[in-house]
Amino acid sequence: MSDATSFWSPALRGLVPYIPGEQPLIEGLVKLNTNENPYPPSPRVVAAIRAAAQEGLQLYPDPQAAGLRQAIADFHGIAAGQVFAGNGSDEVLAHAFFAFFRQGKPVLMPDISYSFYKVYCGLYGIDAGIVPLDAALRIDVAQYRAPCGGVVIANPNAPTGTGLPLADIEQLLQQHSRSVVLVDEAYVDFGGESAIGLVNRYPNLLVVQTLSKSRSLAGLRVGFAAGQRHLIEALEVVKDSFNSYPLDRLALAGATAAYEDRAYFERTRAAVMQSREGLRCDLQELGFEVLPSQANFLMVRHPAHDAAALAAGLREQRILVRHFRLPRIEQYLRISVGTPAQCAALVAACRALVSDQ
Ligand SMILES: Cc1ncc(COP(=O)(O)O)c(C=O)c1O
Fold first, then answer.
1. What pLDDT score was predicted for residue 356?
2. What's the whole-number mean pLDDT along residues 282-293?
3. Structure letter (DSSP) for residue 322
4. Distance (Å, whole) CA 350 – CA 284
5. Alpha helix locations (H) across the chain?
6. Residue of 114, 118, 120, 336 with the most ligand 1 atoms within 8 Å of its CB, for mutation
7. How many A from CA of 74 to the centre of ligand 1?
8. Percent above pLDDT 70 for the chain
9. What is the mean pLDDT of the chain?
């Protein structure tokens, strides 16, 4: 008799994988649990994907993703060679952990942050050097002084939503000038300050962004890294040792078109930021404490109501939010910013729950 894992590589047995937020196939749900954009992608993206589907799917896509990298580089004022594109920023992050952080020393990261960072550490045998957020659940860069094999932070952080000023990022870069500092900017377009403008000054800076949030393309799976050429080359070595074609023809076409429709990007991200501020006021009026957010979600707690009970109550009304059963944040809910109608539905449901003693 063999046990269920007897065929597995030994390294797999202790792995704790990431658990993605629920994606239920139920119609009419108000889905505010995975920080997707409530608006669809630009019509130009859909047209580009349609056109790409008409032609050339029998051929492999461009393994260099040259057109997309040029579009991203033009948008950010850097060179195409300073951009690496991958299948969602999750894949880009995974390659970066493999490429830069297997140094035999811990990689510093916040105790509360994107939980995939610890998963990549487990996958690649990297020690996670956990640095607690301060009492207000903010990253305090002064706490990141220990010798390390690298630093990874999300800016704005997730799931708190709070951003760091670039001066703090520069402090990390200077302090750890011999290690890679990875700044994950998944949510930066909703009011944060991007460090991409610093890449030419800091050879140890790698910035990662995604098209899943501010470009409304979570379903297409596209993310990228920006950094100096020597860092991008390392990512290319990992990619070409793993999967030469992480981005298919539809993804390349749609993602490139997303960068070509700047007006749509500006309009939709402004709408999300405006809804976020409205939602913040409405929730505060109901007695919720709301962490400062430069992201497309709010991290909230109610002093008189248990977070798990609130999440369950919302769910009964077909509204999904994210509740993490984790130390320090188990009394918080993370609520993605929806359309004005979705936000209104959430606020009405919360009002009923908090006044229903
Ligand atoms: C902080 C952070 N980084 C990266 C990602 C991954 O994004 P994707 O793989 O969709 O590009 C997420 C997704 O929610 C995130 O919250």
1. 65
2. 98
3. B
4. 11
5. 43-54, 66-76, 88-100, 116-124, 166-175, 229-239, 249-260, 262-285, 307-316, 340-355
6. 114
7. 23
8. 99
9. 96
Nearest atom (ligand 1) to Cα of 222: 11
Taken as a whole, the chain contains a residue count of 357
Q: Is a pLDDT exceeding 80 seen at residue 357?
A: no
CB 296 within 8 A of CB 276: yes
Contact 158 CB / ligand 1 (< 6 Å): yes
State the amino acid at position 314 in one-letter form: L
d(CA 219, CA 200): 32
Pairing of strands 107-110, 150-154: parallel
pLDDT of residue 110: 98
pLDDT exceeds 60 at position 48: yes
Average pLDDT over residues 272-280: 98
Longest dimension (CA), the chain: 62
DSSP label at residue 112: S
* Closest protein CA for atom 7 of ligand 1: 89
- Rounded to an integer, the average pLDDT of 153-161 is 98
Give the DSSP letter string of 323-350: ----TTTTT-EEEE---HHHHHHHHHHH
CA–CA separation, 207 and 197 (whole Å)? 10
The 10s digit of each residue's pLDDT in 100-147 is: 999 999 999 999 999 999 999 999 999 999 999 999 999 999 999 999
DSSP string, 20-52: PPP----TT-EE-SS---SSPPPHHHHHHHHHH
Give the phi and the psi of residue 322 in degrees, each rounded to 5.
Answer: -105, 130
Find the 244 Cα to ligand 1 centroid distance in Å.
22
Determine the atom of ligand 1 nearest the C-alpha atom of 187.
1
| Distances 284 to 275, 288, 299, 357 between C-alpha atoms, Å | 14, 5, 12, 18
Whether the model clears a pTM of 0.85, i.e. scores above it, the answer is yes
How high is the pLDDT of residue 32? Answer: 96
**Residue from 89, 93, 211, 324 to probe ligand 1 pocket by mutation (most atoms less than 8 Å from CB):** 89
* 262 contacts 323 by C-beta, under 8 angstroms: no
A 10 A CB-CB count for 15 gives 11
Q: Which residue has the higher pLDDT, 4 or 233?
A: 233
